[in-house]
Amino acid sequence: MSETRRADGDPELTTYRDVQLSPDFSELRRRFRRFVFPMTGLFLAWYFLYVLLAAYAPDFMSHKVAGNINVALLFGLGQFVSTFAITMIYVRWADKEIDPAAEKMRHLIEGEHQ
Amino acid sequence: MLPLATEIGNPTVNIAIFALFVVATLAIVIRASRNNRTAADYYAGGRSFTGPQNGIAIAGDYLSAASFLGIAGAIALNGYDGFLYSIGFLVAWLVALLLVAELIRNTGRFTMADVLSFRLKQRPVRMAAAISTLVVSFFYLLAQMAGAGGLVALLLGISGRAGQSLVIAVVGLLMVTYVLVGGMKGTTWVQIVKAVLLVIGAGIMTLWVLAKYAFNLSDLLGAAVDKSPAAGEKLLNPGLQYGATGISKLDFISLALALVLGTAGLPHVLMRFYTVPSSKEARRSVSWAIWIIGIFYLFTLVLGYGAAALVGPDAIRAAPGKANSAAPLLAYELGGELLLGVISAVAFATILAVVAGLTITASASFAHDIYGQVIKKGQVSGDGEVRVARITVLVIGVVAIIGGIFANGQNIAFLVALAFAVAASANLPTILYSLFWRRFNTRGALWSIYGGLSSAIILIAFSPVVSGKVDAKTGASLSMITDTSIDFHWFPLDNPGIVSIPLAFVLGIVGTLTSKEGTNIDKFAEMEVRSLTGAGAEKAVQH
User: Fold this and answer.
1) Along chain B (543 residues), what's the average pLDDT of each consecutive run of 10 residues?
2) For position B472, what pLDDT does the model report?
3) Which parts pass through the membrane (chain A) (predicted)?
4) Which of A83, A86, A93, A112 to mutate to probe the B interface, most B CBs <10 Å?
5) DSSP state of B519
6) Which of these, B195, B225, B239, lies nearest to B312 by C-alpha position?
7) Which residues pair with A64 in a beta bridge?
């Protein structure tokens, strides 16, 4: 890569472009997107299910489950549970699946710039 | 019967506790500011905070007076419909966690505009992003200052407009002092201290309320229903506030949309990601923030229903701060004037810390984006920029004080929701497109930012929020313009999100596809590689 760099005279951009086209980077990007996009779809769907039920199915939501605890409250608390769970899952996943590969690539790129 | 709210508490105790907080935090700010040398120190706290520290500061920045006073009041009066605020404000963090925080951290330097203009035409996009930053921060600021006014009315028994305005001015002056002396480092420490105090204070009140009902949530809910004869059972069901008509249901969905998509477009939240050294720490920050914010919102659920059960909706409505005084009134009911003093000082601290965070964001955007990059085209030293930023802080202080005096009395959770709608419309589409859509270009960004921004603001201006909303029972005005004979609203919803957010997303696509400008392949490669690997990202400042 250092050869091309000298030839093109624009070291930084050549390198970034090369990295972007490399199979390792494509794999990293694919792995990242395959996790975050479906996860985003999932929690948004779950959130809007709650919102729409609250707006258009108040009778169902007002159904009492135990004492004064109704379906609506359980749905609301369910949003908290899912948010905490997704946070934990994502952090654990990214630490394991993204960081090592990203760090390796970063050392490669920054090492060559010096 | 409760005594009249203007007579509750002891103003001397309240002021003493608050003064103690101000002195303590000022000492911290002065200490933290000793290492403020460069622009990275002033704007980004030297990028040397750890993930957990920044996570607590984010919680301190985010849990504004709207979260504490506004949501507790909304739940106390509107029951379950108030709970939507808590849920939307929390779930929104997943957008920031999964799609925005780390990528932004790796790509930008100081402001949101750094990222948005990264691979597009610098000056027009930066200008648009800076304007949007200033507008969103202004709306948010307005909400906080309005909260300060209401709180003061309650605590010091100042019901006169002039007295309240004076206190709003004092809050503004304090905020300017914090930011000028401490920069981002000082601001961050104020936010950390405040977040800890707020969570502890709300936690104690929550346990106290639950203990009164033998830790049986169902009994607490039952007591809230008994004390609210007007609402009755409906207090626990969805629809009390938004269920009346088809239009009001749409308003509920509009609010839900703005809340969940707004957070990741808030400039003062995005700027906090630059205070940590790496994307890994940015991820840890958000994770910490989500836990703290989530637990706090569970507290507000108890506090809201607790206020309904122990104080009662009539006493809350009669108090000078109306819905915003539910939490302080509950504190007084539980622990007398001492707890009221502590909780009020915490609420004041909350307002101060959030306002300081907004001020530094707005001043950074003006100095770094508009002055440094657009006017001076980058030919200005970091010191020159910081000097302009400091002058901007003074201007923002004046604007905030004047705006706060005007907004005094509005429900703050609601005002903040408007800021969220503007942020979700003007900022989020461009953030996501520039990170993930290769074809995206300058025209797409400009159409989306300006289109989202102006549609949100125009719809708010012609909504019932500004004019023409009348309480059906009392005939009193519920709008900002309190003269009921003035009515120029034609947009039926309070919150513009359901129209302006999709519109901004569509404008981004249409603008991009109708422009001949191609992708800057090299800059896009740099942005994509940097955002995912952290290569070439700004490093922490070494002292």
Assistant:
1) 50 81 87 81 88 95 84 92 92 96 91 91 93 92 79 71 82 86 89 92 95 93 89 86 86 94 94 92 96 96 95 87 85 89 83 88 90 85 85 90 78 76 95 94 96 94 83 74 82 93 97 91 91 86 71
2) 72
3) 35-57, 69-91
4) A83
5) P
6) B225
7) A70
User: CB B536 to CB A109 under 8 A?
Assistant: yes
Whole-number Å distance between alpha carbons of A109 and B525: 13
A44 touches chain B (CB under 8 A): yes
Q: What is the pLDDT of residue B543?
A: 64
Surface-to-core class of residue B436, CB atoms within 10 Å of its CB (0-12 exposed, 13-18 middle, 19+ buried): middle
Dihedral Cα B312, B315, B321, B324, nearest 10 deg = 0
Query: What residue numbers bound the domain in which A20 lies?
Result: 2-113
With a cut of 50, list the residues of chain A below it in pLDDT: 1-13, 114
Within 10 angstroms of residue B207's Cβ, the number of other Cβ atoms is 13
CA separation, residue B214 to residues B127, B207, B211 (Å): 57, 10, 5
Number of domains in chain A: 1
CB within 8 Å of chain A, chain B residues 198-217: 216-217
pLDDT for A40-64, tens place per residue?
Answer: 999 999 999 999 999 999 899 999 9
A residues 55-84 near B, CB within 8 Å? 55-56, 58, 61-62, 66-70, 72-73, 76, 79-80, 83-84
Selection from B110, B114, B137, B105 nearest residue B45 by Cα? B110
Interatomic CA distance for residues A50 and B259, integer angstroms? 14
What burial letters (b/e) apply to B463-474, b meaning 16+ CB within 10 Å?
bbbbbbbeeeee
Closest to B164 in 3D by CA, of B174, B152, B147? B152
- Name the DSSP letter for residue B240: T
CB B326 within 8 A of CB B72: yes
pLDDT at B7: 53
How many CB atoms lie under 10 A from the CB of residue A100? 10
Its ipTM equals: 0.91
Tokens, residue A2: 């250092």
